Amino acid sequence: MKLPRLSTLCLAGVLVFLYAPLLVLMGNSFNLSKYGGRWEGFTWQWYERLWKDEATLTALMNTVMIGACATLGATVLGTLAAWCLHRYRSPLQRVHLVLTELPLAVPDIWIGVAMQLFFVSIGWELGYGSVIAAHITFCLCYVTTLMLGRLQSFDFQLVDAARDLGASGPQVLWRVILPVLGPGIVAAGLLAFILSLDDFVITFFVSGPGASTLPARVYAMAKTSRSLPVINALSTLLILGTFLLALAGHRLLNRRTS
Amino acid sequence: MIRSLALALTVVTCCQAQEKLHLYTWADYVSPEVVAKFESAHLCKVVVDIFDSNESMYAKVRAGAAGYDVIVPSSYMVSLMEQQGILLPLDAAKLPNRVNISASVLEKVDDKTMRHSVPYATSYGVLAYRKDRLKDAQATWAMLERPDLKRKACVLNDMRETLGAALKFLGHSINTRDEKQIAAAGDVVIRWKKNIAKFDNEQYKSAIDSGEFVLVHGYSGDLFQVVSENDQVGILFPKEGAVMACDEMVIPKSARQPALAHAWINFLLDPAIAAENMEWMGYLCPNTEALKKVSPEFLQNPALKVPDEVQARSEVIQDIGEDLAKYTKVWDAVKGTR
Fold it and tell me: Looking at the whole model, is its pTM more than 0.90?
């Protein structure tokens, strides 16, 4: 009797610790007070201001666009990488595995600085292209790791069976492999999208004129902007969006495929 | 065939209309209406990117981010960028409106002849107080030592600003290279530190607004907002003089649109435009003609009413090169003192 109560208490404590700050921020996005120290009444005005804030919406568009491209690139490359790593066990593949997983261990700031130096030294102009390339790089390792896990439970006899029954290569891919791995791929893609959406450090280094993403903009606004509650409103929407995406990803990842 | 031709035509016309000016500046530092007016006058699109500190902007531009057409750094950073040779010399012929720039501000910045930079806006490091809880407020830095304000005040967590305030309090230049003077200023800040609650750069606005603190040291541009919303907050321009910040418009050599960049700078120096712009952002543009055009209510904001003698005694932070280490040493000592 005692243990469940203790664990419930722990759970509640952890949830409060994790989510209370977010709730305060969400509450403040409806606060009439500009400085958020006191509650001065309910308002939608920060959301209205956000709606009219063209630069912030452009940054949001940039973020979504970059996120979509990075997701596409990272999902395709990551899935292919995972497939190779799972199927072939040569020494070369072991190097491949280490190289793929390395960005998980390297601090973001190193990746950011290194990429900036790299892009500048090869003369690739900092902008959308450099941000997308950087995002693909760090999303790739997450997608690969996730897909490797999915492939553990993939029954390769299905492929043999399909071949045996006369399916061509493309048919096996379309009719057997993709339907079975599909939910995993989508879940990995969603994770990549969320990672790309959230990234600040790497983007900070590799973004160029006109290509700043939302997190970069929020960071710059938080220090000197006089419309801080607009950031609260925006963060509230982003938290909700991220939450829904994470929920969808979770559902897909756990879906039983037969 | 016709369709593809039409498509090509739209693409071409669209690209002509989409000539882009990339502006790199602080958050909320230019009126969106002013931007819209410039866009329709010059048939272009202005893309505004923002930075949070001179240092992060410098790191980015120095590392090779090309394509920003106009940047608005603070004056000491302008000198540093000029020394590094990354600024384009301005073409005076394309900037006829620069005659509007106030001479009294120009004499305080490094680039007095506007060779590569044009002053954009000024603000001061000042004190703000609660009128309802502090009766005998005096415009002096000595306020920070008042025993009745113990734990109820804060100063900026900014080396040059806060040591600068202490240097002014002692009657020295904020750009002094004399180690003794800097050490003396450090001792003053240590005295302040024992009295105040904390060093703070962001929360002081809400702290003075809600009354958590009675006296705060902050930037007049930020306090402009607080004062216009809360009439219990007053501003003190310390009589010893204050640290003045001047942000200036520059064009980096890596700009793609130098002609359009000149047009932008000249546009912002137009008296009517500058007046509209400063009323929106709440910072004073050092534009003599524009100041005649702004509404009287705007100039009534206490955060903008700089007494002439304080302005005369105020200084702009300058790049002091290697001597900066002297400040860092004293500041570290201040921060380390318990």
Answer: no
